[in-house]
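If your schedule permits, I should be very grateful for your opinion on a structural question. What I wish to show you is a protein chain and, alongside it, a tokenised description of its three-dimensional fold. Would you kindly read the sequence against the tokens and tell me how you understand this chain to fold? Here, with my thanks, is the record as I have it:

===
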Amino acid sequence: MRLPASYRRNLRLLRIVHILATHGMAAIAVRMRLFLPYVWVVQWFREEPLPTEAGAQIREALEKLGPTFIKFGQMLSTRVDL
């Protein structure tokens, strides 16, 4: 049985929020008010240390999120102000 589209979208959104929270970018998820209690729990129980550079955190998160987000990161890398 296939899940309804709304459930699949929510599960995908939860996965994105989880990856953002585990890679030190929970501020993005919190600012968008997405799954706030979940973000706090993930941050609290994070075991591995985060890279010190913001660029490394963003790169790792985008790699984990998949090819669409990698392409988004490539577009961001062309911006001079970032």
